[in-house]
Amino acid sequence: MISLHDVYEQGSDAVKAAVHAFGARHRPQGAGPDAEPDWKWAEKHFTYLIEAIMGTAAAPQTGAAATVRQAENAAIDFLLAVNNRPDYRCPICIKRRRGPL
């Protein structure tokens, strides 16, 4: 499964901005808006996002590797779609009932 770091390294400028925005949603609890993201936490939530997408996908007809790649692409598309939304919250954080930043 692709890592958030790999998405950043391999991505376009728009993808890199989306990764940074996702990371910004994962600052340590109580940290100010200028605090560095907790990248381990963001990475974990990106993996959970891919797994959640795979869990809702139709049964694979092209093989497991293709299903994983489709879920990875969908997760990247999700990051791009919410990149510029100031009110965006990580769906994994919401599911785990973490308060807004």
Number of domains: 1
Cα-based radius of gyration, to the nearest Å: 14 Å
Number of strands: 0
Task: Write the element-wise H/E pattern from the N-terminal end onward.
Answer: HHHHH
What best-fitting shape do the alpha-carbon axes yield? globular
Helix content: 55-70%
Q: Structural class, judged by helices and strands?
A: mainly alpha
How far apart the termini lie comes to 28 Å
How would you explain this protein's 3D organization?
The protein is globular. The model has no long low-confidence stretch (mean pLDDT 88). The chain has helices at 4-10, 13-24, 39-56, 64-82, 91-95. It is mainly α. Helix 2 (13-24) packs across helix 4 and helix 3 (39-56) packs across helix 4 (64-82). The protein has one domain (4-95).
Keywords for this structure?
mainly alpha, 101 residues, globular
Summarize the model shown.
The chain has 101 residues and is an all-alpha fold. It has one domain (4-95).
What's the SSE blueprint?
Blueprint: H1 4-10, H2 13-24, H3 39-56, H4 64-82, H5 91-95
Helix pairs in contact: 2-4, 3-4
